[in-house]
Design brief:
binds adenosine-5'-triphosphate; 7 helices; alpha/beta; two-stranded antiparallel sheet; transport; 231 residues; ATP-binding; Rossmann fold; ATP hydrolysis activity; 6-stranded mixed sheet; single chain; 32% helix; globular
């Protein structure tokens, strides 16, 4: 796929070619400004492309995006914020209230259901944001630096929590991050993004003892201009 922003001297995306497999978590690492967010927004259909396309296994596939900023309605409760995700569904009439209760349980937020979100910690608020995304019953969850504003301990807790959640709900997840540990913790595969034409994708046995040093060695080599290699 190809994308240039108006007035930019170089394209933000060029020649990027990747396949997201059902049920996997693909983590994309890259430095600031390399185009990770543009790629994620393009996959979500939020960014018109100049060339190429995003193809779906199923035309009805639904996406939900979680950004770094939870973007909640501060005066509404945890429950109301999660329910809002469901109300934006195409089939809003069929939206079940019990789905919100299920989600509150899955998210570990049942005790806080009626708390205004402005009283939550950053980590709790980001769990609500994930819950609001899950309320649309997405086939693919797109995460753009979802935990980078949190302290390291909370970030690690939420990464492990999300890994369990993705496995339990059999989610397909596309994550962009500049945090190597986050990519190792969450990714079944890790892609390396070094800007236009610098995308690399590699199987990484991320749950199997891969070290940050090994990932960083790939990461540093990602900008050699050799283009895509996809396993
Ligand atoms: N709306 C926009 N208009 C013009 N240029 C943009 C816009 N959004 C991003 N860019 C440019 O496109 C390039 C890629 O930006 P993008 O946000 O995708 O990178 P990123 O890897 O996600 O960075 P970060 O980690 O800092 O979020 C950058 O050079 C950026 O300045």
């Amino acid at each position: 796929m190809r994308k240039s922003y108006p007035g930019a001297s170089a394209p933000a995306l060029d020649g990027v070619d990747l396949t997201l497999r059902s049920g996997e978590t693909l983590a994309v690492l890259g430095p600031s400004g390399s185009g990770k967010s543009t790629l994620l927004r393009a996959i979500a259909g939020l960014e018109p492309l100049d060339g190429g396309s995003v193809e779906f296994g199923d035309a009805d596939e639904r996406f939900a995006v979680v950004f770094q900023d939870p973007g909640l309605f501060p005066w509404l409760s945890v429950r109301q914020n999660i329910a809002l995700g469901g109300r934006y569904r195409r089939n809003r009439d069929r939206f079940e209230d019990s789905r919100v209760d299920d989600l509150l349980g899955i998210l570990g937020l049942a005790a806080l259901a009626h708390t205004p979100v402005q009283e939550l910690s950053g980590g709790q608020a980001q769990r609500v944001s994930v819950g609001r995304a899950l309320a649309v019953r997405p086939d693919v969850l797109l995460l753009d630096e979802p935990f980078s504003a949190l302290d390291p301990a909370t970030r690690k807790d939420l990464q492990l929590w999300l890994r369990g959640l993705a496995a339990e709900l059999e989610l397909t997840v596309f994550l962009v991050t500049h945090d190597v540990d986050e990519a190792i913790t969450l990714g079944d595969r890790i892609g390396f993004f070094a800007g236009p034409r610098g995308f690399r994708q590699q199987w990484v046995p991320a749950q199997d003892g891969t070290t940050a040093e090994q990932i960083l060695a790939h990461y540093r080599g990602a900008g050699d201009g050799s283009g895509n290699w996809v396993i």
